[in-house]
């Protein structure tokens, strides 16, 4: 039996932005451990630091201090090209809006990700992932012929194309009704388990937190973990 892959670790991460003559603290000594095969939901009010946490975890922003480890790789000291290569091979990002290329079919949306990572545009793998998200019969349809929920499923499958160790998901249900949103969260949970991915989902929909293995709340740049059922109930 193969050992589980290392997941995502943020250790004492602090991030500040210029604010006139001062600096605004977006993340204040934040620590987060997401093991492989688990899903952590991150909640919090607008402006609390959720988006900053996701950007740091994706290595899109370098924090002022602290450590970000992705699949066992310490990102401190890595150059821009090295971080780009790490994102392409070890990190899958599901943006709030699918931003699918209108001229490409569902399968081609996935194949282009492999091409960007320097791999062969494997149609067989693209079809396998589309089947995993329930879209095997939509592989040759372009975005305008897909529903909002289907486009989001393509978005998720695309993020998994290069077999990432870490999956970062930004508000995946914001444009969906509750039933379709719950279906997307169930899908993410199942894929996380089966593929051994360390998944972080930023969401405003607290009714969906029951699908998560752990819940963390961001307020004023500080992270509060909620591991117990009582804590989960208080966050809903």
TrEMBL record:
Keywords in alphabetical order: ATP-binding, Nucleotide-binding, Transport
Gene Ontology MF terms in the entry: ATP binding
InterPro entries attached to this UniProt entry: AAA+_ATPase, ABC_transporter-like_ATP-bd, ABC_transporter-like_CS, ABC_transpr_LolD-like, MacB-like_ATP-bd, P-loop_NTPase
Domain ABC transporter per the UniProt entry, residue ranges: 8-235
Presence of keyword Nucleotide-binding: yes
Gene3D superfamilies: P-loop containing nucleotide triphosphate hydrolases (3.40.50.300)
Entry annotated with the keyword Transport: yes
Protein known as: ABC transporter ATP-binding protein
